[in-house]
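(Deposited chain)
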Amino acid sequence: MLRILAASLLLPLSVAWSQDLHALIQQQQGKLDQALERLTSQRAAIQARQVPLARKLNQLEEDARMLRAERAALQRTRDNRSVERETLRTRIAAQDKERIYISRTLLPEYFANVDASLSPGERPTLGETLRQLNLFLDRAEVPEGVGLARSLETVEASIDRLETLLGGTRYPGKAITRTGELSGGEFIQLGPLLFFAGTMESGVVGETKALHAKVHPLDVEQARAITLVAATGSGHLPVDPSLGDALAMSDAQDSLGQHLKKGGVWVYPIMGLALMATLAALLKLLQIFSIRFPQPMVIHDIVKHLREGQTKAARELASRQPHILRDMLVSAVDHANESIDLVEEVMYESMLSTQPKLERFLNIIAVTAATAPLLGLLGTVTGIIKTFDLMTVFGAGDPKPLISGISEALITTELGLVLAIPALIIHALLARRVAGILARMEKSAIALVNGLTRKPRLES
């Protein structure tokens, strides 16, 4: 019953639900059909637009590919330009360094060499140009390009000068003569050779640091040849192969008086010692080489007279002997009758009295040989002190003010050694000669004593 009742109750509900479900299905089916129609139309529209879009896409892709290729080309161009720009910067930096090296190193060195090669006749012209250029370049406000341009103009002028000098040139100027006067005239320059033909004097121009050239006069014939070449432009010129060095050396050679004068005040005591030693040596030479010794048989004859009791004859023979042995032999004869020891003492006393006479003035030579180097060393020390004093005033850049002190330091040492070495040699020779004389006197004395002590030979 319950089942029937439930079925009866649910039946209307199921009918209503089925109707609603059918309607819903119909509604959804209509929507589905509409959606399919829209889908079909949309597919047809898409299908209709797909080909143009594909073509457009292909075109766009082609355009993109071309743009990418163009961008890559532009990138390469930019990279290349960057590389070229860096290369240009490097080249510009290298050229700037080269320009700075040329303007600040090469050109100053070149101008210094040109200035050093200028002859004294060119210093008032090209030398003054170089000086003005250096002053111009030292100014801070001068642009570098302007300074470089002016330097190049001076380089061209110096090159023109070299070309001119190769064939020889003449130009007017002024030079200092031998008397110290400034004379006008004409310079003749042929390579490194420079001549001057002036109204007062003609000759060769030597190197000088002065503003004006200095003429070294030549003989009359050579001066006339220089004047002729200056007037006509042709002729023969005297050539010095040493380029003035020989003339400079001849001018630098001093006389003996000038050489000694450079030595300063200590030259005078050295020369005084030299004079004393020379006089002493001459006197000793005259004294020593005038000494004569008796013949070898004289001592035997004196002893023979004494042994025979002929004292008077022995004394006369002894008194006729040379002076060096006369007093010794006479004293020995006078004391021959006494003991042998007394005869030896008498002769030894005579030798002792003779020795100071023989050695007289030798001490002067010895003192000279020992003192002269010390005086030379003293002069050296004085000259060095004077040199340092001059260096404190003038500095060490210019050597000319220092020459006097150096000359005094060297010349006194030279004179001291020149005096000491001969004095030492002469003293040694004279002392040896005196010792030889004393040895011969001693030998004669021993021969006399031996003769007196010899026993007489028995008669057969």
